[in-house]
Amino acid sequence: MRLRRALISLLAPVSALILAVLVSSVAVLLIHKSPLSAFSTMARFGIRTDSLIFMVNEAIPLFLSGLAVAVGFKMGLFNIGVEGQYTIAALFAAYVGAAAPVPGPIRIALILIVAMIVGSAWAGIAGVLKVTRGVHEVISTIMLNFIAFGLTSYLLANRFKQHNAPGDFLIKTKEIPSSGLIPSLNGLLRALGGRPPLGSNLYGFLPIALAVGVIYYVLVWRTRFGYDLRASGANPDAAQVSGVSPRAMVMRTMLISGAIAGLVGLPDLFGLYHRYTIDFVSGLGFLGIAVALVGRNQPVGIALAALLFGFLDRSAQILDLEGIPKEITIIMRGVIILSVVIAYEVVRRFLEAQEVRSAAERTKGLAEGVPA
Rounded to two decimals, what is the model's pTM? Predict the structure, then answer.
């Protein structure tokens, strides 16, 4: 039964990907181009070494963003505020990381801790509003996103900015010292026989992201808190009757979600920017919602979804040279999200019907005196 359930569940993402390819093929045909040529070009470009490094680098923050959203989803909470949480967390982490007079390893740990505290605190505001005033977290987190953007812009421009040299008009914080940066994993790639091209650096934040994924799995599926979390999401009334405090669970879940969200901007901070700038990477929080949905809130599924999104973004860059709009991948991404949500719902209802039918047959067998 478990094997059958797993196989049926596997059909959902596979069918979603096939449908996305078919719909995108129609779009390509409408502009009088060959879908086969487009997808083969994307595949060849996407499996180059530099493209694979780019894909993984882009997948790391998406993976963290998906985990931050998934924690809330497991309890039925919709943390739409990951965007604002990681934005303001990255600003404070960059500022403290550049200003703190501490040795390199301690500076790295300090940046991680500051980011998690700030992200957790910002998400905690939505938690407090929900448990004390009944404000829905979707409303509060969306509003907090705009407040975070405005507050970040103000602090960057008036409090945290570096005094630039004449002619340098970019608003930015001071640069984090090189001793406080996590080195790339290119050395490990070379030791394993890989040949990363010049200019392509695999983010050193990858092991930390994987560790967060393992912690997420253990926390949600191997602890009492995780059991209460999933029980509250499946049936809040039953969980409350069994002794679970809804208010406490909301606050803990939002704080954990915010702490993970605070880490989302750090892979790019350590590996690319080395400071917070006015053009710091954006949009990762909203993409994290899609990644969590496609990955079904499972760490492995979220990782695969993040890699898929990273591959689509990278491989799309070659399409312009073929005279094909790279926005075709946006169509693919949208179709994947919609079809996965629909497919999983169909699978869920099918499995529920199967379980009900099986239970009815067992009950009938017991009533007739026949062993089930």
Answer: 0.92
